[in-house]
TrEMBL record:
It comes from Thermus aquaticus. InterPro entries: 4pyrrol_Mease, 4pyrrol_Methylase_sf, 4pyrrole_Mease_sub1, 4pyrrole_Mease_sub2, CobA/CysG_C, Siro_Cobalamin_biosynth, Uropor_MeTrfase_CS. Belongs to the precorrin methyltransferase family. It is an enzyme of class 2 (transferase). The lineage of its organism: Bacteria, Thermotogati, Deinococcota, Deinococci, Thermales. NCBIfam families: cobA_cysG_Cterm, PRK06136.1. Keywords: Methyltransferase, Porphyrin biosynthesis, S-adenosyl-L-methionine, Transferase. This is uroporphyrinogen-III C-methyltransferase.
Amino acid sequence: MGRVYLVGAGPGDPELLTLKAYRLLKEAPVVLYDRLVDERVLALARGERVYVGKGEGESRKQDEIHRLLLAYARRYPLVVRLKGGDPMVFGRGGEEVCFLLRHGIPVEVVPGVTSALAPGLPLTHRGLAQGFAVVSGVLEGGGYPDLAPFAQVPTLVVLMGVGRRVWIARELLRLGRDPEEPTLFVERASTPREKRVLATLGQVAEDRVEVASPAVWAIGKVVGALAPWILKRAWAEV
């Protein structure tokens, strides 16, 4: 049996890879990769590349990915499962670990820089935020998340929420957040196509913000604390 490594590819910039991730990409005879893995990171892989992404309109199921991982682990001594960001932050890494362990396959997780951190914001800026939460804008099967437990968290980072940004903003306002609270969208963070859009939560709720997926969405006073720096880097402002 081979060993499977669940490797975090980070948000895009290959220089944000860990040294271990870089080494494994060079050594692995096969790499199974997701839709959001940057092409520059993927280019580092020397072995066979197998696409197992699940983008919009694609029908590949998680159990099919499990079967592929098992088949390759029985065939090769080293298998890399490459995931955008961190494999254990909304990457279904836990499901893959459990499946492989049930089948006697040794697994190791190689952490990556989660896209939630890619904008470089001080999520716990002293005096403004003593904690933060990272939430998904979409639940399994396309369901809508319950935001009530996170509504008053000082800094809220939303992943996979671009398509539902208006609903999310309105729900957060209904739950008591300030419509003047600053928010920041960062499209394709850490890549040459990065774009930053600064707006208030109220402007998002009014559907006045144009932003494309994939993007990280940060909400909270910490965004306003670095507004001059953010504006200097921003490509668009509402």
